[in-house]
Every structure is written in structure tokens, then in C-alpha cells.
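Researcher: Hi, I'm a grad student and pretty new to this. My advisor asked me to get structures for two proteins we've been looking at. I'm not sure of the right format, so I'll just paste the first sequence and hope you can take it from there.
Model: That works fine. Here's the first sequence with its C-alpha cells right after it:
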Amino acid sequence: MIRFARSGRLHFLLMVLGLLAAAPAAVAQDAPPAPAAAEPAPGPADPTPAVVPAPSMPTQPPANDPDLDQIMLLRDNGSGEPGEQTSSFRPADRSMHFKVTCKSMKWGSTKARWVFTALQTTSGDTGQVAEAEATTLVANEFTGKLTLPRDWPVGRYQAELFVDDKLVCTIPYLVTPPLGEMKITEHTLFRDDGKGREGEVVTAFRPTDRNKHFRVRANGLFPAGTQVKWVYTAVETDQGRNQAITEVVFDLDSDYDVLNSNLELPTDWPVGTYKVEILVGEKLWYTIDYEVKPA
């Protein structure tokens, strides 16, 4: 097995960005030849909304004003007030709280407002979500609250604080279930389009489909640094049973809700049954069972 650190464009595809780090592991005797790596190619347009990769939430989000001291995201305590601090929100966090503290006191007439924007979400909804006046508890502290009457779509958002019409800070944040509560909800098989990209959606492959594409979608965002492993096996073909083809391990360099991979063989695939196992942090999350059928 070869382990890959995530860097640059590799042969696996994650979200619309090239991310394959494909190198065959040891192949069982009489197994199909190890897949050959193809030239990296940009991912295809996704017909359904997918979250564009976003950096993990930093401890202190980007600030535009050097006078800023602390920026906090806070969950609701159940009574409409700020509760525990967090680095991201869950979809069920219908009320979100934000707090910005400055190093110096802001005296005099100060007008402050928050602008909340959905950058990209799995629902496809984007654009400004709300605008509201900022609450000033003390002269150097600004708080804001954002509420939705239903669960929030998974995705990337930002909160901007303006003081006297000057942008003071931009706070990027994520809405996603924690990794321990996430699951892969669906998968799709694609033929190659002849250019190394996802083409026609299929339920089974033909032997001549030498380059096979797979996509899985989760109900949340896999955080940057998550280890993902794809394990490819020929379950039963005329060449034998349960024969290892290859496996690839890599660490995500950003946050993703969609994982794509492609597997290419320099010759036709043997007819039979196959599977792809997807492990996250050494735990089996999902299995794709598929067939290669005669044309």
C-alpha cells in the first residue's frame, strides 16, 4: 500500500478538483492487471449542487481591523442566548451567535451591522441570508444572532461585521454535522467520457469501460486532515474470487461533501462482480457493489 499526502492535483477527484493519488498496491496472483494512472484532468461539472472545498475553520477567523482581539462562534443555549463556543455549526443549530471583541473601547456614536451570506450549499441556495444591526453589550464588544426556522443547509457561509459602514472583519464558517454523526448517503457510477472525465451515468460497466468513475456523497463535510482510503476488489470473476486490485490512502487538504475516484485498466475488465470499500480513518463507511457485464 502506498500512502499519499494531499498536495497538488492527483488522479483521484474530490469535488470538481483533481485529487487522485493513484498508485497500485500489490496485486493478488491471477488478479486483473493493476490499474494504470491516467493523466490528471479537471473534474466534470456536477449536475447537482456540491459544496466547494473550503479551508477548515481557523481558531481566529480572518480580521480586517488590527484592533480586533477575539472572534467567537457560539451555539445557542436553548433559551435564545449564546452558549458553548464552536468552530462550526450543525444543521440543527437554527440559532447561531457571533461575538467580536476589540482591543480598545469604541466610544461615541457607533453604528454596527452584520451581513450574513451563504457562499455555497448542498441545497444550491446562495447569496445574502440576512442583515441586522449589531448588539453592543460593552463599548468594545459586538454580538450578532442569526436564526432560521428550519435546519440549515450544509455548506460554507460567512458573517461580515461593519462598524460605521467600514468592514471590520469577515468570519467564514461551516454548517455540517460532526464527523462522528456523518454518513455517506448515495453513490453514482459513471462511464468515462473519452477525456478522462465522468460521462454517462450507469448501473453496471462493460468490459470495454476501462476507465471507471465513482462518486459518493455525504450528508456533511469531511474536515480537512481526514484520512480516506479506497479499496478496490474483484469479488468474483473468471480469474478467481476476492482478488485485491489496489488501494489508495490520502489525507484531505480541505473540507468536502463529495468524493470522486476513477480506476483505469490498460486492458478490458473481466466480467464479474466487484466492490469498492471507502474507509474513513480506518473505519469502513460505505461499500459500492457493482458488476462488469458483457456488452
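Researcher: Oh nice, that was easy. Here's the second one.
Model: And its structure:
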Amino acid sequence: MPPIPSSPGNDEIASTRSLWNLTNPLDPTTPAQPALPEPPIPELPSPRGRQLPTRPRHEERSPTPVSPAINIGQDLQAIIYSLPDFPETAFKKERPGNAGNLTNLDREWKIHLVVEAAWEGYTWAPQGGGFPPPGTSASHQKKVLLNVRVPMLVKYYSANGARQTLWRYGYPAGDSDPTSVVEMERIEPLSREERERFARQVYEGDVVEEVLSYGPNEHCLVRPYLGKHSGGFGLLGREASMRNLPVYLDDLEKLGEDVEYIAREMGRAFGVMHWGAGVDGDDVEFVLGTSVLQLHGCYPPHRGPIRNFRTTGLWLLGFRQCKTVDLHKPADVVYQAFSSAMVTGNNQLFIPSVGDGPLWNNFSHGYTQAAEKVIYERRLGERFSAKAFLEFYKEYAWDIRG
């Protein structure tokens, strides 16, 4: 499996730009490869070849910030900020005291690196979605069509480095402790229309308008919970958060969301995460958010703000509790590690229940499709099988979840 970098230094990452060395074992011209290649971690190539805009250096910016950092999300580990000089990225600032925990930001950065490398090495997604058109390159044909995106990592700032660059003119209000920061591709919020659609389904009466008018709720992402039909929502009233709004299966179906498609894409994501990255996916998050739609050769030529064109999609993030799994170990040990992570934390909410026939079938189909392709590419087929793992998981999940 891909090694975890020994440190989050950006110089080390920049020195290893090459991507995974994927080869076709059926091609007689391909040199023999070890059963478990140990590729270097790349410099963080942008997802699907999409490049973030070139930005001026910190020293070249105005000495006076245009506006303060904006809190756009938070959890027990960190607070997420947007900065006016960085419209395409978000900044995850570690909470004071978290550096000594197992879920610290340094460790999550390293796991995220491994997952992103697997996404770049084993998956592809065409600009408009869909399947490879005629004439698609052989390298794409060998990869997994995957429409779940992982935010691109941009830079790791030590506590001291963040103080000298990001916060050189003052820390965000109320968060003045110097801590580590990770800069990554920003997941844009859902549109006002989408926020209203979800809010009216989840909340009732006057609460809807209060929630929609509450400023922080503009930064809205939705968690599609396919593993549970309904659930509670904690705070009600204007401060009810829509930042990571849980929307359960019954409400998703009432809204007409394509839950079978979401289940299939979640399955593919787990398949690549398990067998491409060797990461168990413990307590990861899937969210519905938007990204800027890249317009190429549109007619008539677009002359307005490019950021007005967005596309909604599924994102995978939150690797703070993930662990790497040694794929050299026996199959039952590996299957146990992956299964135990899939039935804990948020995973039991995202992953369809094994007793939910059509939805589970779509998840398992997506998982098998992706996992078998990666297992084949990595020459793991003599010891592992996606179908065998899913049978193991089904029995395990029945025992744990019922």
C-alpha cells in the first residue's frame, strides 16, 4: 500500500511529482512489477487535471486585509475558514490542544495524501460525467470511473508558518492561538435554491425562514444518510445549522434524489479507498456540495463571472480517524479491519443497510466494480476478492447492526 509520508513538509512532496506507475500485466512489453507496488506520494496533482488559479505570493498582496477570515465550518478537530485572497481554497485550522490527539491535523494530512494519490492513480472522471467515449485513451480505460471527488490538498502550514503568512495581519476573531493549518480545495456550498429545497423538507413552519435567513447557513453542505431512514436534528430555530445538514433516506427519496446513484458512487469510493489507498475509511464523510463548472468551447462564448456556473456533486472528506491497513496481511485480517471501520461512526449512517435490498445492491455493485479493477491492477487477485470481502462484511454487519 502507499506509504504514509514521514512528515508533512511541502519540500518533500514537491520532490516527488510522478504519479502511480500503473502497468498492464497482460502487456508483454510491460516489465514485471512487484505484487504490491510502493509508489511515491505525488506532489498533489489537482483532481481530474483541474488547476486552481495562479495566486500572488503573500508578500505581493495588499498589507491590509480586505476582510477578515470567515468561519465556514467546524468540528471537534478544527475550524474551517475562507480567506478573501484565496477564493478557491479553504483553511482548516486545528483547535488548540488537538495536536496531541490521535486525530491531529498532521496525521490527517498524511492520510489524506495517500487517499488523494489513489484517486489520481486509479480513477478518472470526464468533464461532463458519463462513460468513456470512443477513442478514450487506454490509461483511462484501465481506471475506475468515479464521480466522487476528494478535495485537493494545497499546503500544510506549521503553527509558526501560519503565523508568518496566513495570519500575519492578525488571527481570526476569537481564535488567536497559533496552531497548524491545512489549505485545501474548497467545497462550494449549495445554491440558495437547493438550500431552500432541503430546508423545507427537513424543517417545518417558521423554522424554515429562520434557518435560511441565518447568515452562517449560507455555507451549506448536505450529508446524504442512506443507512438510516429518519432521525433528529438537534437545535431548532435560527441557529439550526445547515453546514453539514443530515438528510436521511426517507427525505432524500421524497425530494426525488437519485439515492441508487449515490449508493453506487459511495461503493466505488470505498472500493478505491480500500484497495487503492489501503485506508479503512473509518468515520469519513460524504457531502453534497458544488464546484465551479469548467466551461470549454461553450457557444455563445461565456462573458460573465465563471463562478456563477456550478455543478453539484458528491465529495469525500474527513480522514482524521482513518487508519492504514497492511495489504500484505492475510485476507481475513484485512477484511476484518475494513469491515469494523464500515460499521462504526458516520459510516453506519452513510452506507446502506445490508438488509435494504435495492440500495445495498447498488452500493455493492459499485464497490465490486471499482475494487476488482484496482485489485487487478495491483495484482492482489490471488489473495483478495471484492465479492469475498462483501460477503464477509455482510455477515459482520448483520452481527453488529442487525
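Researcher: Is there anything I should tell my advisor about the second?
Model: You could mention this: The chain is about 30% helix and 15% strand.
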